[in-house]
Backbone:
């Protein structure tokens, strides 16, 4: 069990992030009760294998005290930026095709530096990814004009459609599992986030303390089996945006019901580190 706890802290080390006890419990690979985890954390700390520090009302853990350097300012800034971003992003609930919108990346942990982007994950109604993205980009550019400190940071980098929530096999990794569980929900219509987790039960393979509602799983599978046709508007929005992205030499991966606008370099780096450890 101690080795599994150290593995969680090792995962967060490249991010210089000290997780809370609750986060260690979520991301540990073995089934364990919260009380037992507290006991093991205490043993590890007494044996000087880990260190802890109380920050903004929560005790956080790390392999080295160096992780805590600058952590307090990142947590305070992250909390402030998250609250501000949330107020602007709430407006997007009025777009009918937006079924879910969540903050991902470093801001999802409310732990961020001044240079970091606000990464956003979006789930849309079936066959509306590209027209939804167009509407979101229009909103982003308006914010860049009137509220540039927020607008310039927004990065809509991952789009799923409701009928394509299950990740491809090559994306079913510990790193992606972390990203899904770390999402901070801003908009969640008709329990769409619960359907996302239900369609990706492979997460439990990595994180055994995560609970997924099986009743929601059945409903989401029924939803995914429906077929939808692409509208003329969606087809036009897709063609124009793909042309522009290729013209600007911007990387993206289009899997139909999933479109990724993010670089996978860091994910590959994490895989390499896992293989070497």
Residues:
């Amino acid at each position: 069990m101690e080795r599994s706890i150290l593995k969680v802290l090792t995962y967060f080390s490249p991010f210089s992030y000290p997780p809370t006890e609750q986060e260690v419990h979520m991301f540990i690979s073995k089934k364990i009760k919260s009380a037992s985890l507290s006991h093991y954390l205490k043993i590890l700390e007494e044996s000087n294998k880990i260190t802890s520090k109380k920050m903004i009302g929560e005790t956080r853990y790390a392999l080295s005290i160096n992780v805590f350097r600058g952590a307090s300012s990142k947590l305070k800034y992250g909390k402030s930026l998250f609250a501000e971003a949330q107020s602007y992003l709430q407006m997007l609930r009025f777009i009918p095709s937006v079924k879910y919108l969540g903050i991902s990346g470093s801001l999802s942990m409310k732990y961020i530096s001044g240079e970091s982007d606000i990464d956003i994950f979006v789930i849309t109604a079936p066959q509306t990814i590209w027209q939804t993205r167009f509407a979101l980009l229009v909103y982003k550019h308006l914010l860049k004009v009137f509220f540039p400190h927020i607008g310039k940071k927004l990065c809509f980098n991952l789009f799923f459609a409701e009928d394509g929530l299950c990740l491809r096999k090559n994306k079913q990794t510990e790193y992606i599992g972390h990203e899904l569980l770390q999402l901070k929900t801003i908009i969640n219509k008709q329990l769409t986030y619960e359907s996302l987790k239900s369609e990706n039960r492979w997460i439990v393979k990595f994180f055994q303390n995560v609970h997924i509602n099986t009743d929601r799983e059945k409903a989401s599978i029924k939803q995914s089996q429906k077929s939808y046709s692409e509208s003329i508007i969606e087809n036009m929005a897709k063609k124009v945006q793909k042309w522009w992205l290729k013209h600007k030499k911007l990387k993206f991966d289009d899997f139909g019901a999933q479109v990724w606008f993010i670089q996978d370099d860091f994910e590959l780096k994490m895989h390499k580190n896992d293989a070497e450890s």
User: Anything to note?
Assistant: The beta strands are 51-55, 58-62, 98-104, 118-124, 154-161, 184-188, 253-254, 258-260. DSSP finds 13 helices and eight strands in the chain. Confidence is low (pLDDT under 50) at residues 272-277.
